[in-house]
Specification:
The chain contains 13 helices and 14 strands. The chain has 337 residues and is an alpha/beta fold. The chain folds into two domains: 206 residues, D-Maltodextrin-Binding Protein, domain 2, CATH 3.40.190; 96 residues, 3-Layer(aba) Sandwich (D-Maltodextrin-Binding Protein, domain 2), CATH 3.40.190. Strand 2 and strand 3 form a beta hairpin. The radius of gyration is 22 Å and the shape is globular.
Amino acid sequence: MKKILFPIMAAAALMAGSAWAGTLDDVKARGQLNCGVSEGVPGFSIPDSSGRWVGLDVDMCRALSSAIFNDDDKIKFVSLSSKQKILAVVTGQVDLTSRTTTWTMKRDTKEGVDFTAIVYFDGQAFMARKELGLKSATELDGATVCVTSGTTTELNLADFARANSIKFEPVVFEGKKEAVNAYKSGRCDALTTDYSQLAAFRTTFPKPDDHEILGDVISKEPLSPLVKHGDNQWKDLVTWLLVGLISAEELGVTKANVDDMKANSKNPTIQRMLGVSGDYGSYIGLEKDWLHKAIKATGNYGEIFDRNLGLGSKLKMQRGKNALWSQGGLLYVPPLR
């Protein structure tokens, strides 16, 4: 029995010793996380008035930086268009992309990237001027629709038209900003993209109330950070960070009380989460208090959502599908054990 076990144990030791050779080692050696973000989507990733990047997707990278460096600002944010977001990961320009990117089969299996965990459940919708008096997107038959090329949005638009026996005249743009500006200038009758982005962009219009988001949601758009395919440990790290932030909300661990929880909580799950018991950080190449550092920097998922998208933000969006499973939403994550 000993002769059989020894090679297995030796192999495991070798694997453990080399497990972090890859992106995490590169990030640590560089002393900086390279995070791909959008060209500017309010609520998700956009520079504020001082030039500091803010948003839900940005905070996911800040939490990751905190878990690795105990510093939420050791990050280089790289603005990426829709067409660049996957290539930048594959070529190593960024360590991950954290920007409104839909998890699809083709992207996950054919394009050299892996998705991690769903950070926001979205769906594609349409925005049009109220003066048109539209009740449904099917009434846009023959209308011009601004859309971004190289996205799931473009394919969904064509599928919706075929399924409903209607015709659109797509006006296609390379970047989201160009599509939005074209709609604002009146070049298109409607604009289509993810519902959350429509709500975000509408807040930037001179007269937001002149525009309405139609009730039709024509697709599933599960948004997730993505990493380069093949680096399983880096994927695990990013995945379990997101799981940890959602779990923290479930357990009531917040930015304000995380130190007290670490010192005084008797809940075994919270003790594991904050590094009081066990050494779960070693599973992903980090210190045992990795999640404590992340929560202390950014707060839990609910705090991040509220600050950037929810009632505490300019967008004032309801949690909806992005509420915890225990509150009628879809956020249900594996256990931290």
